[in-house]
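Hallway conversation turned thread

IA: we were arguing at lunch whether anyone had actually written out YwbE family protein end to end. Turns out nobody had. So, for the record, here is the sequence (67 residues) and right after it the structure tokens. Reply here if something looks off.
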Amino acid sequence: MEQDGRNRNNIVPGKEVDIVLKKDQKTGKLTRGIVKDLLTNSAFHPHGIKVRLQDGQVGRVKSIILE
């Protein structure tokens, strides 16, 4: 199961997500990780909420992994 990554209230630190890194935007390659910080302040972003993963990578959430 997956959840949309464009609404900020769906994303909390500790969640597992798939993000697109800036360098991968053209290819759409996804990177999976655990959210450390939310970097987008608005409640909604059409390209996905920007987050920092626990390993330091920054990108926009494309999907939220649900157990």
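OS: looked through it. The chain has one domain: 2-65.
IA: good, adding that to the notes. Strands lie at 2-4, 16-21, 30-38, 50-53, 58-65.
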